[in-house]
Amino acid sequence: MSKLDKRSTSRSFSCRTSNEWWFDDMSILGPKIIEKLIKNLGSYDKNNDSLVLTRFLLHYLKTKVHSKSNNKLEYAGLADTAVQGVIFAAKTAFSCRKLFWVLRVLSGFSISKESRIGLERVIGEMLDQATLDDLLIPEGGRGEKGFYDVDLVIRLLKVFVKSCNTKEDQNVKMLRIGKLIDKYLREISPDQKLKASKFLQVAESLPDSARDWFDGLFRAIDIYLESHQDLSSEDRTRLCRCLNYKKLTLETCKQLAKNPKIPPNIAVQALKSQQLPNETLPPNKSRNSRKYLKEKPIMVRLKGFEISEKLVDGLEDDLRMNMERKYWNKVMDGSEKVCKEKKSEVVTRMGRLGHKHSSSNFPRLC
C-alpha cells in the first residue's frame, strides 16, 4: 500500500470517529482568510445555518480569546457569525451550560448589540436549567460595579419571566429558578461593591409565586447586611421589604425578630404577619386590648432591639390551639348533625306507633 493510500485510510478513519479533525488545521489561519472563506460559502453573519461551521468558529475563537497579540476587533464578524449559528440551533444542539460557555467565550470579542441580545434571549428562555456556577460570570470591566456581572443576570431573568406563559411554567420552572436565584444572592452578597439597589433588582425580578417560602431570600439579606455594616437604616428597610412576611416560616421569623441588623419596624411587621386574626382569639380579647398587649409585650432597647420571647413563643401556642379548636368544632358539628338526623327518624317512628315523646328522652347534645 502506498503512502498516499495509507494517508487516505488514516484520514477516512478520522472522519468516521470525528468530523472535527480539520478544526485544528484551520485554526492556524488568520481571521481575514477564515472570513473570506465563510463568505464564499454563503454562510457569513445572519446567513449561518450550519451547525458544523458554528462549532468550528467556536473552536477557532476559543483558541484566540487568550491571545494578547491578536486584535479582537478583527474577529468581531466571525463572532457574530458564530452567534447566529448558535441561535439557529440553540434548543436542539446546545444545553444551557454550553450556551453560558459560548457567552463567556464570545464576550471576549466585540460582538454586536443585536447578537448579544439574541444570545441572551436564547439563554434566558432556558434559565431554569442553569446552575449556580453558570450564573457566576465575572464582571468584564475593572470591577467598579462588583466582582460578578449582576446586570447580565437581571437581563436574563427578565427574558425568563416573559417566556413563562403556561401555568406549568409558572409553577415548576418558577419555583426552580426561585431557589437558584436565592442561592445566587447568597453567593454574591459578600461583594463589597454590590449595591443594595442591584441586590433588590435581582430579588424583585421574580414574581411572588416563584418562592414557596422566603427563608432563602432572608438568609441572603442577612449575609448582605452582615457584609455591609455601614448600610443606612433606609437601605436596610428597603432590602427587608422585598420579603413576603407571610411566607416566612415561624423559625425564620424568630431569627428575623432577634436579628439586631433588622430595623425594629420590620421585625414587628414580620411578627404581625405570623399572628392569627382577631376572630381566632378568645371572646373580649382583641389584638389592641391593653390586657392582650400586657400579655404580649414588645421591648425596644437602645442597643438595637429585641422582641420578647413571650410574644414569639406565644404564636406557636395560638396556632396549635386554633387548629385544635377548629378540629373539635368540626367534630362536634358533625356529631350534632348525625344526632339530629337520628332524632328526627326516631320521632317519626314513635309518631307512627302512637307513642309520646319528650326532649328528655334524647341526649343533651341534641
Q: What does this protein look like?
A:
The protein has 366 residues and is an all-alpha fold. The chain folds into 3 domains: 18-125; 132-243, no CATH class; 245-366, no CATH class. It has helices spanning 3-17, 23-26, 31-41, 51-64, 76-93, 96-106, 113-125, 132-135, 150-163, 167-188, 196-203, 215-227, 233-240, 250-258, 264-274, 290-295, 309-353. Helix 7 crosses helix 9 (150-163), helix 10 (167-188) runs parallel beside helix 12 and helix 14 packs antiparallel against helix 15 (264-274). The longest helix is centred in the C-terminal third of the chain and has 45 residues, at 309-353. One of its GO terms (biological process) is protein ubiquitination. Keywords: Ubl conjugation pathway. It comes from Arabis nemorensis. This is NPH3 domain-containing protein.
Please tell me the overall pLDDT. Answer: 77
Strand content: under 5%
Order of helices and strands: HHHHHHHHHHHHHHHHH
Radius of gyration: 33 Å
The count of domains is 3
Architecture blueprint of SSEs:
Elements: H1 3-17, H2 23-26, H3 31-41, H4 51-64, H5 76-93, H6 96-106, H7 113-125, H8 132-135, H9 150-163, H10 167-188, H11 196-203, H12 215-227, H13 233-240, H14 250-258, H15 264-274, H16 290-295, H17 309-353
Brief sketch in words of this structure:
Keywords: Ubl conjugation pathway. This protein has 366 residues and is mainly alpha-helical.
